[in-house]
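just leaving the lab so this will be short. what follows is a protein written twice so to speak, once as letters and once as structure tokens for the fold. can you read through it and tell me how you think this chain folds. anything you notice is useful, everything is just below:
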Amino acid sequence: MNESKPGVSGAAVTPSDTAANEFRWLWIGGAGDGTLKVTTKEGSVISFAGVPVGVFPVSVRLVWDTGTGVTNIVGMN
């Protein structure tokens, strides 16, 4: 992934434990409790703590509802 490359398409992300959301990076608009759980494009399930507001450069296929407390998420490709 090349983080210096701007996103050309995007959408609001509604965290879900089942619905896929494939994105190259995420914008976190609200820190909430600072937790973010994702399934990466490679299939790893990772939980992050202390996620700040701003760009979060992780390629995801799923943003989990369970285990995610950050808010106002936008996914970009």
